[in-house]
Amino acid sequence: MTKFHPEYMITMKDFVKEHSILLRQQTQEVTIPVTKEDRHTLFAMLQYLKNSQDPNLATKYKLRPGSGLSANQIGVDRRMFAVLFNGTELMFINPKIMSHSLNMIYLPEGEACLSVNRPVHGFVPRYERIKVKAYDIEGQEFIVQLQGYGAIVVQHEIDHLNGIMFYDRINKENPFKLPTNIIIESLSSFQ
Asked: What is the pLDDT of residues 165-190, one digit of tens each?
């Protein structure tokens, strides 16, 4: 039984911190059809993102703003996450990246994570475009193509499901050094 029922509001106290073993493990596949428990958890995750992006609610409940949230970040060992960016809200269950571009992008200000309570400096190379296959909350398979910021957010969350933290992708010797054998551009140059 999960605590994430429809009336439950996720706050910062629910987040697993970065050194937890749960964030370093592969998450368990979600059974299809999706259980009521997993549905409630996903809806609560999406609601957190909405609340965190609402300035009044974020201030009132001391929520850090987020664009994506994976289940293991709130202590639930399931391959699912929710994202909310540029007015787009999506929930992914058992996602798989089917293809990606050769070109890469990165956020010039770097990435952050709701499970990491410290600044981490450095560039995180990500694919500029990805095609993802997943199941929705009704258990229906779907395929979505993402580019730019949306592709970055979804790759960050899929990494979580695979036990990878964003800072694992930062160059260890020089955090601001980018791969040299590929085309990689700052996301800001696309806007």
From this structure: 999 999 999 999 998 888 889 987 54
CB 117 within 8 A of CB 106: no
In 10 A of CB 130, how many CB atoms? 21
Cis? peptide before 33, omega within 30° of 0: yes
List active site positions.
157
Instruction: Please state, in angstroms and rounded to a whole number, the distance separating the CA atoms of residues 43 and 41.
Output: 6
Least Cα distance to 107 among 58, 46, 156 occurs for: 156
Give the β-pairing of 68-70 and 126-127: unpaired
pTM of the complete model: 0.94
Residue 134 CB coordination number (10 Å) = 23
Domain boundaries, the chain: 12-190
Q: Decide which of 3.90.45.10, 3.40.50.10490, 3.40.50.970, 3.10.50.40 is the CATH code for 12-190.
A: 3.90.45.10
pLDDT digits (tens, 9 = 90+) for 121-169: 999 999 999 999 999 999 999 999 999 999 999 999 999 999 999 999 9
Rg (C-alpha) for the chain, rounded Å, is 16
